[in-house]
């Protein structure tokens, strides 16, 4: 499996299954450096945060309401980013050496009924199912926590 495959599957999933509160196209960027990740998060949110500050200082009532909504959206996005941060700033290496050793000890019957050959895993399907679980579990919990 490659990071490119993970990115493709994630982007396709969120495009086909958008959140009920989605307000923009999903943007999936993986960073190997946490400092770059933090800077890019701030850069992406800067225009909205500036609008929020300006609206609260000199804006009319409608601007302040709009700015408050925008700030809530940014807070949700940051919370989602924090939830998935371990997955986007780390490089995960899957080592199947132990399962490869185990396969050698299985008899033919067990090999047929207990397919544990990781090299035959359909990674695309696996990632699609992981995303479905993430959307149901993590994001539902997140929405309840933020409300």
Verbal overview:
This protein is an all-alpha fold and 147 residues long. It has one domain. 72% of the residues lie in helices and 0% in strands. It contains six helices and no strands. It has helices at residues 3-16, 34-58, 61-88, 97-105, 108-113, 123-146. It is elongated. The model has no long low-confidence stretch (mean pLDDT 81). GO terms for molecular function: alcohol-forming very long-chain fatty acyl-CoA reductase activity.
What's this model, at a glance?
With 147 residues, the chain is mainly alpha-helical.
Outline the fold blueprint.
Layout: H1 3-16, H2 34-58, H3 61-88, H4 97-105, H5 108-113, H6 123-146
Helix pairs in contact: 1-6, 2-3, 3-6
Structure characteristics:
single chain; 147 residues; 6 helices; 0% strand
Quick one: overall form?
elongated
Helix and strand composition category: mainly alpha
Percent helix: over 70%
Q: SSE order in H/E notation? A: HHHHHH
Distance between the ends: 37 Å
How many beta strands in the DSSP annotation? 0
Largest sheet: none
């Amino acid at each position: 499996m490659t990071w490119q495959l993970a990115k493709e599957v994630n982007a396709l999933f969120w495009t086909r299954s958008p959140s009920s509160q989605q307000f923009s196209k999903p943007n999936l960027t993986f960073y190997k450096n946490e400092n770059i990740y933090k800077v890019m998060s701030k850069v992406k949110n800067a225009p909205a945060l500036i609008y929020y500050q300006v609206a609260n200082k000199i804006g009319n009532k409608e601007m302040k309401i709009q700015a408050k909504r925008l700030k809530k959206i940014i807070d949700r996005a940051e919370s989602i980013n924090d939830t998935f941060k371990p997955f986007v700033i780390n490089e995960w290496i899957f080592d199947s050496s132990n399962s490869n050793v185990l396969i050698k000890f299985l008899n033919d019957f067990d090999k047929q009924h207990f397919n544990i050959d990781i090299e035959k895993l359909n990674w695309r399907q696996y990632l699609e199912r992981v995303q479905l679980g993430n959307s149901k579990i993590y994001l539902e919990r997140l929405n309840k926590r933020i409300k």
